[in-house]
Amino acid sequence: MKAGDIVTCPHCGERTVVKLGKKFSGWQVCGEVLTCALCSAELGTPEKAKSDSSARDKLAALLGGDETEHVSLAPGEEYRRGCRNCAHRLEHPFKMLCGLTRSEVEPMHVCPEFRDREEKGK
Predict the structure, then answer these.
(1) Residue 110 is inside which H or E element, if any?
(2) How far is it, in rounded angstroms, from Cα 7 to Cα 99?
(3) Which of 8, 33, 68, 72 has an alpha carbon 20 to 30 Å from 86's alpha carbon atom?
(4) Is 57 left (phi over 0), alpha (psi -120 to 50) or beta?
């Protein structure tokens, strides 16, 4: 028996839904118990869940084997070419300015005059 099953309660004799409740010892939870939704009588303890290895095997069979393709989430070369990493960027507390054009720029904007900040110090 598991939570959500429809059964006839041995205590009240009515058809009912099985609820999963917590068993307390003082303020500590000491276990789980299945109860009747109508009379709250204890109907037993929940069944132990089977190991998920069978579910994993079924999924592997569905997907065509258990070989997983590793995906690299590392940013590409274009990621570093944004204005936020440019040597011409001027620090300002309220907006980002370009030192070449003297205009406001967006951090992810890519411009042809990009020069890496790390290369500027070399």
Answers:
(1) none
(2) 76
(3) 72
(4) alpha
List the domain range (segments joined by +) for residue 80.
76-122
Cα angle value 43/48/51 (rounded, 5°): 160
Task: Please say whether the beta carbons of 80 and 74 come within 8 A.
Answer: no
CATH number for position 119: 2.20.70
Task: Label residues 42-81 b or e (16+ Cβ within 10 Å = b).
Answer: ebeeeeeeeeeeeeeeeeeeeeeeeeeeeeeeeeeeeeeb
Give the total number of structural domains in the chain.
Answer: 2
Tokens found for residue 64: 């065509």
Q: Tell me: do 40 and 81 sit in the same domain.
A: no
pTM: 0.39
Over residues 28-80, the pLDDT tens digits come to 988 899 999 999 888 888 877 565 567 777 777 777 765 667 777 877 776 77
